[in-house]
Amino acid sequence: MSSKLKDQLQELAATVADFEACLPAVEASGQAIVSALKAGNKLMSAGNGGSATDALHVAEELTGRYKADRAALPGLCLSADISALTCIANDYGFESIFSRQIEAFGKPGDIFVGFTTSGNSDNILKAFEACKRLGVITVLLSGKDGGKARGLCDHEIIVPSQTTARIQELHTFVLHQWLEMVEAEQW
What pLDDT shows up at residue 1? Predict the structure, then answer.
């Protein structure tokens, strides 16, 4: 086994150990998601690059299923509609691609999950601002020091790592835990 592979695994194990301090935030944000969905609200999510994939993952598991057969739940990934993204970017700028969609679809009591490993993505920051204006509950999934997004959201989960891959690996853990909480409910 290569030393690089072993180093990566050891880094992941150390990040997981440090992440234990974030578990109360994972549970609290998961409870907020369950409450919002139970009240008939929706979850919206967004991210850039690999984080867009994480945002799509949580949304598709709600409308489809994670493990159990249950009612379809409203999950909307704002990173997924290429025509909306390119239209908004062309007309308003890339920093507005998510906030414009939140203005169109967001209602008080909905939840928006912003995935940004650095916490500094302008389009996610602007989306959080739009959520605050509209009464949409905000959840930050970040890493490093949380960046500019730290302190802006109702719920924050900041993975204690400087490595994007480790941050995204723990983001997947978080969204899976949320789905476990959702599917533990009666729908």
Answer: 73
